[in-house]
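Need the bound structure for NDP, inputs here:
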Amino acid sequence: MATFKAMVIEKTETGTKAGLADFDDAGLMDGDVTVHVEYSTVNYKDGLALTGKAPVVRRFPMIAGIDFAGTVESSSHAGWKAGDKVIVNGWGLGETHLGAYAERARVKGDWLVRLPASMSTREAMAIGTAGYTAMLSVMELERHGLTPASGPVAVTGAAGGVGSVAVALLSKLGFSVSAVTGRGEEADYLKGLGAAEIVERAALTGPVKMLAKERWAGGVDAVGSTTLANLLSMTRYGGAVAACGLAGGMDLPTTVAPFILRGVCLYGIDSVMCPLPRRQEAWKRLESDLDRPKLAAMTREIGLSEVSEAAAAIIAGQIRGRVVVKIG
Ligand code: NDP
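Answer from helper R.:
Posting the output first, comments after.
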């Protein structure tokens, strides 16, 4: 294959522009494994990169896309051989290393996770980086010691990608989940994923009290800013919140009160540079703990030519659940 279709971001005088282009195989970056990409996905960070809303891309031209699943074409890495089914999340894909929205990718073998045996490449990308981050968040709450007996947990940005998977995971694990959403019309969808209660987003976007009434034993926060600050002030004594997102803003207008007066813990979740053993554990858990019919219910499939439109929609907070992109 001398050239292949790719979604390429170029630098312009006024910013960046993204579009479908024929990419020359010779332009692929160094790596010891070449992969035939089958599926990718639209994550919030892909939205930022494609719309140019934040300086996610550090090299031009860049093939966008931060995650993919596919089949190894060739490998000089000891751990991988042609025909192996693999997943990549992050490691700078679509930021510093040519990314996923292309029929072919060349990456480091050390970045790859083996596709779980019972999962298709499409299912892996229906989960995508959003779902894998939701799993990392849940694992952190478990490491803290949270169990269903600790009390109800909140998921913010619930109708989005991270939120939908977090709701499905936590409910399957037996937690009573409060889904915090700005889209009341998605109440039935969220209940279908296992939410016990729908909480209007406005309940967490008002003025932040140092300590509010104790409501949740913990939470997964995809929103940041005032929402996270309110969630912390509403977290019960000894509880924990996993912060993984910034859909509502990068700031955090909180005080130390929840930490020093209620022993609340705030855990930071990073999917990009997360060490391999933890990734492997997360994908293993996703194989066993994510209900597949629920995954199917939250997923919509698009083609490479529809990625730009989906990117704008995710930044506008209009995407429900997950968008999987069929590539090869
Ligand atoms: P989505 O756009 O699918 O979901 C975000 C959700 O947040 C929206 O659906 C909406 O949910 C809510 N939301 C959007 N804007 C606002 C706002 N202004 N105030 C309050 N709530 C808002 O994105 P993803 O789920 O894919 O990603 C969520 C966040 O997680 C992003 O910031 C992303 O960058 C981050 N992320 C971080 C990773 C990491 O490694 N730490 C990895 C993956 C994602 P609703 O309509 O239900 O209110």
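Comments: The first helix runs from residue 44 to 51. The radius of gyration is 20 Å.
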